[in-house]
Design goal:
It catalyses: L-aspartate + ATP = 4-phospho-L-aspartate + ADP. This protein has 14 helices and 16 strands. The chain is an alpha/beta fold. The protein binds adenosine-5'-diphosphate (ADP) and aspartyl phosphate.
């Protein structure tokens, strides 16, 4: 059995949706598809999810009724134009309109309203696509995550999948029918709609693939696979034929947004392979994500912005038993997650995503100063992290040298270097302003 997920670019308009359905219907093995909300049709277009977020801000900002109505209409017009062009005989627009108005009227808590509105993009799209396929004579069911058994934690905007979902989904979905499921959200045990982080429809597809023990998880997008660097920075980059789960997790974590980094977790323990394919060129082989491969050198160079570093210095830190534990418990108490902890004998840096500091920075630094009696503390922001990734790095000699030489040749100030014990990636901390230059320089050094 194959589970396929189609991203926003694959369902942005009628022409794209028809390509999706021809892929869906071409193979009986392809039983469940997960769809995103309509994405951008042209570069300056707004993703439907972003229109829904704008609607939320108007509602909570007590904008006048006309502005809210206009935004609801803008959302509905995207679906209406899809319906008209298909054409769908029985309009779903009155139903969608009622649902949006009901949510706005009845949802009092802001975080809940945001999640509920954000979910409507994928939800309406799935319902519409299933209805059209049925109209075309292929009996197709639409399954809301509530009915599919996709249960998640209750953290608005950042849901985690609950383990019990896997059996619930297996038990809920009829084994012989074609099914369309909206991506990006699940249902908490208190019955609330909770969304994943942005790009999270990839995760929905992965969860369904694992629950149904799929032979393959196909992830359809607008590029013919994963490239060794972001194609928006490097023109015509090298296409990766095969990449491991571990390599992909590192690459998507640091900016390869073509596949959500959390989507690897449900798949790797069951060794369900993933193929990244192009909806516009389904005949292209794409990129296969697998558990192991014959690896040589570096497979990809990724870079992501928006990091901060808290640099701490204390003489004799290396002799102080329990220092790091106390430091980490401060982060834990403030519910802050970190990314890397490069350290020296008398200093340690905590690298985290800048958004983790929002509203907590003063408290965090104050607690570190007072609890740990340190000598110096400084915070650096606007950092980028560049990663070179490859299972082959374990055995290759001189890999780091190529990157550091590239930084030197291009006058890029290197703020820190870190290599995890798995030796499949190396992280370089640089200033955000150097990010594009650095990717070009390092990519050219390896490819
Ligand atoms: N290394 C990479 N390989 C392929 N695509 C990448 C890479 N890094 C970034 N991208 C971008 O990811 C995009 C696909 O992801 P996304 O926009 O989320 O698609 P979808 O709407 O299908 O989910 C590509 O169009 C490309 O611009
Ligand atoms: N629509 C959501 C979820 C998603 O996965 O979208 P896409 O498949 O277009 O990346 C978002 O924009 O974040």
């Amino acid at each position: 059995m194959k589970i396929a997920k189609f991203g926003g670019s694959s369902v942005a308009d009628v022409a794209q949706i028809k390509k999706v359905l021809s892929i869906f219907n071409a193979d009986d093995e392809r039983r469940v598809i997960v769809v995103s909300a309509p994405g951008r049709r042209y570069p300056d277009d707004t993703k439907l999810t972003d229109l829904l977020i704008e609607l939320y801000h108007l509602v909570i900002g007590h904008a006048d009724t006309q502005q809210i109505t206009d935004k609801i209409n803008t959302v509905l017009e995207r679906f209406q134009s899809i319906e008209q062009d298909l054409p769908l005989k029985q309009s779903l627009i009155p139903h969608f309109k009622g649902k949006l108005e009901h949510l706005i009227k009845e949802t009092t808590e802001h975080a809940r309203l945001l999640d509920a509105l954000k979910s409507c993009g994928e939800d309406f799209n799935a319902e519409l696509i299933a209805a059209y396929n049925t109209q075309q004579g292929i009996d197709t069911l639409y399954y809301h995550p509530r009915d599919a058994g996709l249960f998640v934690t209750d953290e608005p905007g950042n849901a985690r999948v609950l383990e019990e979902s896997y059996t619930a989904i297996k038990d809920s979905l009829p084994p012989t029918k074609k099914i369309v499921i909206p991506g990006f959200f699940g249902i908490s045990k208190t019955g609330h709609i909770v969304t994943f982080s942005r790009g999270g429809s990839d995760l929905t597809g992965a969860v369904i693939a694992r629950a149904l023990d799929a032979g393959i998880y196909e992830n359809y997008t607008d590029v013919s696979g994963i490239f060794s660097a972001n194609p928006n920075i490097i023109p015509n980059p090298n296409r990766i034929e095969e990449v491991t789960y571990d390599e992909m997790r590192e690459l998507s974590y640091a900016g390869f947004n073509v596949f959500h980094d959390e989507a690897i977790a449900p798949l790797y323990s069951k060794e369900i392979p993933v193929v990244i394919k192009n909806t516009n060129r389904p005949e292209d082989p794409g990129t296969l994500i697998v558990s192991s491969r014959q690896a040589e050198g570096v497979v990809g160079v990724s870079c992501d912005k928006g990091f901060a570093s808290i640099n701490i210095k204390k003489y004799m830190m290396n002799r102080e038993i329990g220092f790091t534990r106390k430091l980490l418990s401060i982060l834990e108490d403030l519910n802050i997650s970190y990314e890397h902890i490069p350290s020296g004998i008398d200093n340690v840096s905590i690298i985290l995503r800048e958004h983790q500091l929002h509203g907590k920075e003063a408290l965090l630094t104050e607690q570190i100063r007072t609890t740990l009696n340190i000598d110096q503390l400084s915070t650096e922001k606007n950092l980028a992290i560049l990663m070179i990734v490859g299972e082959g790095m374990k055995t290759a000699v001189g890999t780091a040298n190529k990157a550091t030489q590239a930084f030197m040749d291009h006058q890029i100030n290197l703020k820190m270097i870190n290599q995890g014990s798995s030796e499949i990636s190396m992280m370089f901390g640089i200033e955000e302003k150097d990010a594009v230059k650095a990717v070009k320089a390092v990519y050219n050094a390896y490819f």
